[in-house]
Amino acid sequence: MSSATQSRQTPSVTNDRNTAGTWIHRAVRGVRAAAFWTATVLPVLVVAALIAGTAGRYPAILGGVLALNVVCAVVGHGHSPGR
Fold first, then answer.
1. Which of 6, 39, 62, 71 has the fewest CB neighbours in a 10 Å radius?
2. Which residues, 6+ apart, have CB-to-CB distance to 65 below 8 Å?
3. Cα distances (angstroms) measured from residue 41 to each of 27, 61, 66, 76
4. Residue 75, Cα to own-chain centre: how many angstroms?
5. By C-alpha distance, which of 32, 35, 81, 42 is closest to 62?
6. How far apart (Å, rounded) are the C-alpha atoms in residues 58 and 44?
7. First vs last Cα of the chain: how many Å apart?
8. 26-83 pLDDT, tens per residue?
9. Closest to 78 measured CA to CA, from 42, 30, 46, 41
10. What is the pLDDT of residues 71-82, one digit of tens each?
11. DSSP string spanning the chain?
12. Domain spans of the chain?
């Protein structure tokens, strides 16, 4: 008697929840990265606006940019550029 073993292969099944979870995870990572880099660049623009004098002419815009910087810093806090 020969004792040959059959190889069992698991069928490839696409799990819709896993695929949706993957897309959501990628979207969250993208938003977090964009917020991180925006929070990194905005202070440079604020300093440039202060030096150029446009911040004094449009204080509401300056306040909005500073508020946007805070929001981006909070959202992008968990991003690691090296990962």
1. 6
2. 42, 45, 46, 49
3. 21, 16, 12, 12
4. 8
5. 42
6. 17
7. 55
8. 999 999 999 999 999 999 999 998 999 888 899 999 999 999 999 999 999 988 877 6
9. 30
10. 999 999 988 877
11. ---PPPPP-------HHHHHHHHHHHHHHHHHHHHHHHHHHHHHHHHHHHHHTHHHH-HHHHHHHHHHHHHHHHHGGG--TT-
12. 45-83
65, 46 Cβ separation under 8 angstroms: yes
Joined together, the tokens standing for residue 64 give 């909005």
The closest of 26, 34, 41 to 76, measured between CA atoms, is: 34
Query: Are 57 and 13 contacting, i.e. CB atoms less than 8 angstroms apart?
Result: no
The CB-side HSE value for 53 (13 A sphere, CA atoms) comes to 0
